[in-house]
Amino acid sequence: MSDPADLYRAVLMDHARRPRRRGQLPPPARTADVSNALCGDRAIVSVAVVDGVVAAVACAGDGCAISVAAASLLAGAIAGGTVTAARALTASVRAAVAGDGGPPLEGELAALASVAAFPARRRCATLVCDALDEALG
Which residue range is the domain that position 79 belongs to? Predict the structure, then answer.
């Protein structure tokens, strides 16, 4: 798997088939439910914030492989970090998926930048960003 496109596809498909942090957190977690009426994707994100830190995060909903993979990747990336860092990360993901540059995404999140080549699928990768931002308040 020397081609980066192959690696990105493998990462996205792994997270789509076996999403991490799947489910919903019980109250008093903050929850946001965001849908894309054009394709039917739906992201439900629950976050528990303690002293400005994302203590726990879970994602549910239905969607295409990109939507499910993006939720899994982002949930894992923000868990344990600050709310400020989580918001900065959703902004970075949006910029990368739009092809607008900005700091490169690191680790497995870099796979989401490959979606920039497919304008019709960009919303699939960023829907969870809207849900996360809403849940974070």
Answer: 4-136
**How many folded domains does the chain comprise?**
1
Task: Say how far apart CA 87 and CA 108 lie, in whole Å.
Answer: 18
Closest by CA to 74, choosing from 50, 123, 28, 110, is: 110
Per-residue pLDDT reduced to its tens digit, 31-75: 999 999 888 999 999 999 999 999 999 999 899 999 999 999 999
Tokens of 12: 């996205």
3-state SS, residue 82: strand
* 116 in Cβ contact with 128 (< 8 Å): no
pTM: 0.90
Distance CA 62, CA 96 (A): 23
Longest dimension (CA), the chain: 45
